[in-house]
From TrEMBL:
This is Xanthine phosphoribosyltransferase. 5-phospho-alpha-D-ribose 1-diphosphate binds at A128, N129, G130, Q131, A132. It comes from Lentilactobacillus kosonis. It comes from the Bacteria. The lineage of its organism: Bacteria, Bacillati, Bacillota, Bacilli, Lactobacillales. The gene is xpt. It catalyses: XMP + diphosphate = xanthine + 5-phospho-alpha-D-ribose 1-diphosphate.
Length: 191
């Protein structure tokens, strides 16, 4: 998506450790018009898949997921993060390990909001190692719901997430794909 790539080039900053900082339009302050275009693009890509709900993880996935859900005319669910869960009878849960933060979080979705007739579209802001997406795929499996696909705003193609999703056999659409962040420069995947 050209608009997004241009925005990343203009407003993104590369930090040491292969981290792309985009907190001025995606991860803290949010560019609403850009997010609207992101949502439109996800809706265009997945419109024929019979999506009944869009699912993400709080907090940075919420903005793109909300816009995708709006344009697909379905509800959006954000899985909640917890340090660890005790009472889980009414929840679908999964454990998510973050390599960057070196912590595990449980994520959960209330059982009332997913049923076997649902077909979900998973949306997230970043795909790095794919741990958040793995957690949502696990929740989908336990909830017995079909996964129409995965939509990512910014994929770090040099990390392991894409490979994991391809192995799982799920459709993946990333609006920007970053090949490298070496030398503090953003290189996009060219295909
Ligand atoms: P993974 O889900 O793909 O495995 O991500 P990983 O554990 O590697 O990263 C942990 C968190 O850091 C995730 O956010 C992920 O979206 C974010 N992240 C990974 N690489 C980058 C990057 O280059 N730039 C930015 N800005 N974020 C990155 P999270 O813990 O789920 O937090 P939240 O922001 O959604 O609350
Ligand atoms: Na995220
Ligand atoms: Na994030």
């Amino acid at each position: 998506m050209k608009l997004l790539e241009d925005k990343i080039r203009e407003d993104g900053t590369v930090l040491p450790g292969n981290v792309l900082k985009v907190d001025n339009f995606l991860n803290h302050q949010v560019d609403t018009k850009l997010m609207d275009e992101v949502g439109k693009e996800f809706a265009r890509l997945f419109k024929d898949e019979g999506v009944t709900k869009v699912v993400t993880v709080e907090s940075s996935g919420i903005a793109p997921a909300l816009m995708a859900a709006l344009h697909l005319d379905v509800p959006m669910i954000f899985a909640r993060k917890h340090k660890s869960l005790t009472l889980t009878d009414n929840l679908y849960t999964a454990s998510v390990y973050s390599y960057t933060k070196r912590v595990s979080n449980d994520i959960s979705v209330d059982k009332r909001f997913l049923d076997p007739n649902d077909k979900i579209l998973i949306i997230d802001d970043f795909l790095a190692n794919g741990q958040a997406v793995s957690g949502l795929l696990e929740i989908a499996k336990v909830a017995n719901v079909e996964v129409a696909g995965i939509g990512i705003v910014i994929e770090k193609s040099f990390q392991k997430g894409r490979e994991m999703i391809e192995e799982a056999g799920v459709r993946l659409e990333s609006l920007a794909r970053i090949a490298s962040l070496d030398n503090e420069t953003v290189e996009f995947v060219t295909d």
